[in-house]
Amino acid sequence: MLEQLFPPPIAVVERYDDDEPVELFPEEEAQLGNAVPKRRFEFGTVRACAREAMRVLDVAPAAILPGPKREPLWPDGIVGSLTHCAGYRAAALARTGDFETIGIDAEPHLPAPDGVLGAIAIPAELGRMAGLKGEDPKICWDRLLFSAKETTYKAWFPVTRRWLGFEDADITLDAGGTFHSRILLPDSPIAGFDGRWLVQGDLLVTAIAVPARQ
């Protein structure tokens, strides 16, 4: 799915199950502690995706540990993003010479749980919901908005090292498969991000990739 949203040379690896055994680095294993099997499976499979993407980029396999905000810590010279949801795990990686930051998110293509839209959306976004539903009623726009917010944060944090709340980005979704995230923080070093989205079967994915400044 994500390969349809990203330009080369971003390396994308996806899996739809946890059937293949994954050997973790000792420091990754230490992160899991007494985690339940579901957590262990998704943790391992998404890292297997990332290491396969490293191989595609001709980068030696490395442990992928969480940072202070749970962000993945990549080897020098690499940027990337991870995502997992029921039935889907994925990693997207690139070299820093090619891309400044990457963000991805996957969600089940189902309506968001009660209360979620009100918790994540600002008035401008809520005001656009009716029009989006009119353009394509088959799309779960509330869930798509949530995913675009998650992807925006994943692209934002590695560049700024700052928190970004749901209320700090105004996301305009387009029925044609794109979105724009306008950052609302008054002192933001970034005006916004352009992203793409895709719904396929019972999954939706959102993606942002910012080319490196030459």
From TrEMBL:
4'-phosphopantetheinyl transferase N-terminal domain ranges (all copies): 28-94
Cited SUPFAM superfamilies: 4'-phosphopantetheinyl transferase (SSF56214)
Domain 4'-phosphopantetheinyl transferase: 102-190
GO-annotated molecular function: holo-[acyl-carrier-protein] synthase activity; magnesium ion binding
A Pfam family annotated for this UniProt entry: ACPS
Residues binding CoA: R39, R47, T83, H84, D105, E150, K154, L164
Residues reported to bind Mg(2+): D105, A106, E107
Alphabetically ordered keywords of this record: Magnesium, Metal-binding, Transferase
GO CC field: enterobactin synthetase complex; plasma membrane
GO biological process: enterobactin biosynthetic process
Cofactor: Mg(2+)
Record's keyword annotation contains Magnesium: yes
PANTHER family on file: ENTEROBACTIN SYNTHASE COMPONENT D
Name of the protein this chain belongs to: 4'-phosphopantetheinyl transferase EntD (Siderophore biosynthesis)
Organism: Lentzea flaviverrucosa
